[in-house]
Design a protein that fits this description.
Strand order of the largest sheet: 1-2-5
Shape: globular
Helix content: 40-55%
Strand content: 5-15%
Number of helices: 5
Radius of gyration: 15 Å
Structural class: alpha/beta
Order of helices and strands: HEHEEHEHEH
């Protein structure tokens, strides 16, 4: 990424899926700080799991039913796009936490959420960036 930046390319990173395993806050704090301090990012997009049923089946076949991702999926949530997602309160906690880490390191970095509802953008203070994920130039 540093080489591409030196060559003049804008660097955008997607941090997804955030996996809320044991000690995830310390792990993502260290990772996020390192990333921001070593790569001249234009934009960072963050997101939780948003998996279709077939992809979830493959994951659980490989990792088992009680892996850190599956344990946090809200099976009662019926999303419009049919994807499995983490519980709303956990998604909000993860996005707010990582947003705070980013703002402490580099307040001017453009932040976005991937495949999220408007309420999560608003609750993390990112509503002005709606539609500015890495999928959009």
């Amino acid at each position: 990424m540093r080489g591409a930046a030196k060559a003049g390319y804008p660097i955008r990173v997607v941090m997804m899926p955030i996996i809320p395993g044991e000690g995830w806050q310390d792990i993502y704090t260290a990772f996020t700080r390192h990333l921001i301090e070593t790569v001249p990012l234009q934009r960072l997009t963050i997101g939780g799991i948003c998996s279709y049923k077939s992809a979830r089946w493959l994951m659980e076949n490989k990792l088992g039913l009680y892996n850190p991702i599956s344990l946090n999926i809200d099976d009662k949530l019926k999303s419009q796009d049919g994807r499995a997602r983490y519980m709303g309160s956990l998604r909000q906690e993860m996005y707010s936490f990582i947003t705070s880490v980013v703002r402490n390191c580099r307040p001017d970095l453009e932040l976005a959420l991937c495949l999220e509802d408007k309420e999560y953008w608003q609750n993390t203070g990112l509503e002005n960036n709606i539609g500015r994920c890495n999928c959009v130039l």
